[in-house]
Design brief:
The protein is mostly beta strands. About 10% of the residues lie in helices and about 30% in strands. The chain has 6 helices and 26 strands. Strands 3, 13, 14, 16, 18, 19, 20 and 22 form an 8-stranded mixed β-sheet that branches. The protein is globular. The protein starts with a strand and ends in a 31-residue tail after the last helix. GO terms for molecular function: copper ion binding; oxidoreductase activity. Keywords: Copper, Metal-binding, Oxidoreductase, Signal. Pfam families: Cu-oxidase_2 (PF07731), Cu-oxidase_3 (PF07732).
């Protein structure tokens, strides 16, 4: 984490300045120093050193924005600007965001805090910020043209309000929204309760992340902003597996995970090995009488869900979106199905002429995790990630909740792969089992079929022959 002064003096200066409007040094002098984060790692929680105390959150592959106290007001400084986001090792995207990253930093405050946010526009067009889910004065709601004029390039606007209710919220532009959100402009906002709250339990670990999606052609760096449905990169906090960090917890920790959805579709988020309670939405904490145990929670567009569970099962537990194509990277939408057809030789020839040519493997997509497919520069592999037993064969919205005994409080370091007790890993069967007696007693159907085919029909793959003869 570096200051704006140090950041612009380093290698990131060229990228940060692309299309950025100049901001007066005199105007910047009175503002809180903009803090910049260019690393894509999960940063430790920011323990408050001023203001009311609280248990801070951990932003997955992100960080929390520091503030300064000014006569009882918490002051933050957000800088809207072009950024370079490493979405996975070896794959970077040219996005728009805040303070060096997309999504921007998480803002954490306490219920009742007086908050002042300075927003400096270093983009080449008007912008604003809408504080999604907040109760605030109408003129601070951030809808350009309706509640405020847009923030011109090179200018700094101020938002001031009281954090009136605890909960999990988001921020994003309401100016040229289709472009700016498609380019990655968004962030999380957490308002902690100021005292013990009847509907908000204390937890040992508190994680948050945003669901977002991009359409970036193989070999490209910049999202296609006109895409409405056919995205090819499904991400958490603008990271894709295997670039998404694990959520590391200690055995028997009470864990809270806050998830916000700013994509163009819903996401059924699924946790293995545990069931969780849905304890909050962007409307606030849910009444305890309405809470239910789930292992999958569907999160619609523009919604937030807060889930909590007791980490009482050791292991490396998958945590992902349950839409199968959302756990893949650089997914093509016109990929033909070639299951059962040996096309490997011709595929290699085609990729020499068309580098981004991609086709389903002869035995399915899993083949592609072990094939050395030629890919254009700056292209994430479709399914990747190596686990202790080989290729995981996942991408996109996928991570791992690592539950370990002995993980110290406040330690979020990766403990490595889980060491399974003897006899607890699935294994190959090499013997024989007799048929259970019940199999012989089972019937073959409630009634005989009508018009049964005279002979059995087996569908076979027929490879196309050469030439175009024989057509009628």
């Amino acid at each position: 984490m570096v200051s704006r002064r140090n950041f612009l003096g380093g290698a990131g200066a060229v990228t940060a300045a692309v299309s950025a409007a100049a901001v007066s040094k005199v105007a910047m002098a009175a503002l809180p120093e903009p803090v910049i984060q260019s690393k894509p790692d999960t940063m430790p929680p920011l323990v408050p050193n001023t203001g009311r105390p609280y248990n801070p959150v951990v932003t997955l592959n992100g960080w929390t924005l520091p503030w300064r106290m000014n006569n009882g007001v918490k002051e933050f400084h957000l800088v809207a600007e072009p950024v370079v986001r490493e979405m996975a090792p070896g794959f970077k995207a040219h996005l728009w965001g805040y303070n060096g990253q997309s999504p921007g930093p998480t803002i954490e405050v306490v219920e009742g805090d007086r908050v002042r946010i300075f927003v400096t526009n270093k983009l080449g067009e008007l912008t604003s910020i809408h504080w999604h889910g907040q109760r605030l004065p109408n003129g601070m709601d951030g809808v350009t043209g309706l509640n405020q004029p847009g923030i011109p390039p090179g200018k700094t606007y101020v938002y001031e309000f009281v954090a009136r209710r605890p909960g999990t919220f988001m921020y994003h532009p309401h100016a040229d929204e289709m472009v700016q959100m498609a380019m990655g402009m968004m962030g999380f906002w957490i308002t902690h309760p100021r005292a013990k709250h009847p509907l908000i339990d204390e937890v040992d670990r508190d994680f948050c992340f945003l669901l977002n999606a991009y359409d970036i052609d193989p070999g490209s760096y910049t999202p296609k902003i006109m895409t409405m449905l056919d995205f090819n990169l499904w991400s958490w906090n603008s990271r894709i597996f295997p670039g998404i960090d694990p959520l590391v917890v200690s055995h028997m920790d009470k864990v809270r995970i806050r998830i916000g959805n700013l994509t163009m579709t819903n996401h059924p988020i699924h946790l293995h090995g545990h069931e969780f309670l849905v304890t909050g939405t962007d409307g606030g904490p849910t009444p305890k009488s309405t809470r239910r145990y789930e292992v999958t929670e569907d999160i619609a567009v523009g919604q937030m869900r807060q889930v909590e569970f007791l980490a009482d099962e050791e292991g490396d537990w998958a945590f992902h979106c349950h839409k199968s194509h959302h756990t893949m990277n650089a997914m093509g939408h016109d990929v033909p199905t070639m299951i059962g057809v040996d096309h490997r030789g011709v595929a290699k020839q085609i990729t020499k002429l068309v580098p981004d040519y991609m086709v389903m493997g002869e035995r399915g997509m899993k083949d592609m995790t072990e094939m050395e497919m030629p890919l254009p520069d700056n292209t994430a592999a479709m399914m990747t990630g190596q686990g202790p037993f080989g290729s995981v064969g996942m991408g996109g919205m996928f991570s791992v909740v690592k539950v370990r005994k002995g993980q110290k409080r406040g330690d979020y370091g990766d403990p490595g792969w889980f060491k399974h007790p003897p006899g607890t890993v699935a294994y190959e069967f090499t013997g024989e089992l007799p048929d259970p007696a019940r199999f012989k007693a089972e019937g073959t159907g409630s009634m005989s079929p009508v018009a049964k085919p005279a002979q059995e029909v087996e569908v076979k793959v027929r490879k196309p022959g050469g030439g175009h003869g024989g057509h009628n």
